Description:
Elements (H helix, E strand, L loop, with lengths): L10 E3 L1 E2 L2 E2 L5 E4 L3 H4 L6 E7 L3 H9 L4 E7 L9 E5 L15
Parallel strand pairs: 5-6, 6-7
Antiparallel strand pairs: 1-4, 2-3
Amino acid sequence: MLEQRLVETICISSYDDKTQRDGKPVLLKSIDHEIANGGEGWLVVDDLADSGKTLVAVREILPKAHIATVYAKPRGAPMVDTLAVTVNQGVWLIFPWDVDV
């Protein structure tokens, strides 16, 4: 059991629907910097590291955090500490939450 009582979210968008934005990702929801402690002791979990732009923004806010992703593409992989599956850069992944039912 993790016995983790504090769970926080940070929301950053680098896509408009299915098109990757040019430039810096948009911060939609930040975190409480008083509890963030620079990310020390934090685990950031993301579904995909694609271009790495979103995780660059996360690293600016939480530089000491451990970042884990399920999938990573070659350009995004350097921003990740732990990943489960590497996929080619040109592969477009479709997640269940991206599909209209």
